[in-house]
Amino acid sequence: MIAVPAENPAAPVVPGADVLRRTEGRAGILTLDRPRAINALTHPMVLALDAALTAWEHDPAVTTVVLRGAGERGLCAGGDIRAIHADALAGGTATPAFWRDEYRLNARIARYPKPYVALMDGIVMGGGVGVSAHGSVRVVTDRSRIAMPETGIGLVPDVGGTRLLGRAPGELGTHLALTGGQVGAADALLTGLADHHVPAAALDALVADLARLPADEAVARHATAPADPGVLAGQRAWIDACYTAPTVEEIVDRLFDTGVPAAKETATTLLAKSPTALKATLAVLRRSRTLPTLEAVLDLEYRASRAALAGHDLPEGIRAQVVDKDRDPHWSPATLAEVTDADVARYLTPPSDGDLGLAPATA
């Protein structure tokens, strides 16, 4: 059960709750509070976030919403994939309901009528990207490590991730989607996953200013250029040249053939991922680029997620990476050559009980 304190500036924060909700001045502050799990999202947490957005949307006392994570490790490591693993082994009935509410929340955040300030400090992955990178004000820090690592567990980037990555300059988003690579502050700004950099040490001061000032003014008081310039700008030439290839197999071949050590390392990285997830990810990412709205992309990603849940590689990938931690997943099919067009088409086909069904909206 999620404890929600009363909405007033003096309201105490309830210890042990998975989502803490309070108001401070003009700001509504949401804190993901599972620090031992790097604030991994559960279904009740998604519902609590949505309830808070409902409560504050028409509350004139709240002019800005702030999202942050408890603890020092990160905003949110993603969805609770241990729960997804258990559900997949039991038949996969609870996870689709979680995804439906999670993806609807992602769409709501993107359309929220008040400034939604996401403090993307530390680890921000998977579902953590979904509750932050669709916000109107996205703040990274010197500690930020942002990624969509789904292909490493047999899943396709979701929570609107293929729309975010599909809009990155050139083929940088394709590179990040297939490799699951992490980016720091500078590369998050370059790829459009974030808007501002604020030193981690200044976050509390930023929140205090958000409680009394308009969001853009508060952020401007603390925003700085990242000290680390990042790596993607310097890799753009070979990334763009390789990832424009029509298939994953040809992308891998081009990476090996570049003569660039980092490109060859990337090819080796790709060959360790789920072959099915790689091919499905490329197909979903490229189709998402043609879709007019985030809602349409979330519908597409829901199809892909449901297909993965019913397949072999998702539970096997979670087992290898998170449950047994042997880092030795046995993918099936085991190679890119064995993944058929029909296998990929399954990720683009609506599930038997229907799509996510989000109403069309203007992009």
Task: Note down, in words, how this protein is organized.
With 363 residues, this protein is of the alpha/beta class. The protein has one domain (19-348): 2-enoyl-CoA Hydratase, Chain A, domain 1 (Alpha-Beta Complex). 44% of the residues lie in helices and 10% in strands. The chain contains 16 helices and 9 strands. The protein has helices at 43-57, 81-90, 94-111, 127-130, 161-166, 172-179, 185-191, 203-210, 215-220, 232-243, 248-257, 261-271, 275-288, 294-309, 313-323, 341-345; strands at residues 19-24, 27-32, 64-69, 74-76, 116-120, 123-125, 137-140, 145-147, 196-197. The strands form 2 sheets. A 6-stranded mixed beta sheet has the order 1-2-3-5-7-9, sandwiched between helices. Helix 1 links the parallel strand 2 and strand 3 (64-69). It is globular, with a radius of gyration of 20 Å. The two termini are 36 Å apart. The model is unreliable at 1-16 (pLDDT under 50).
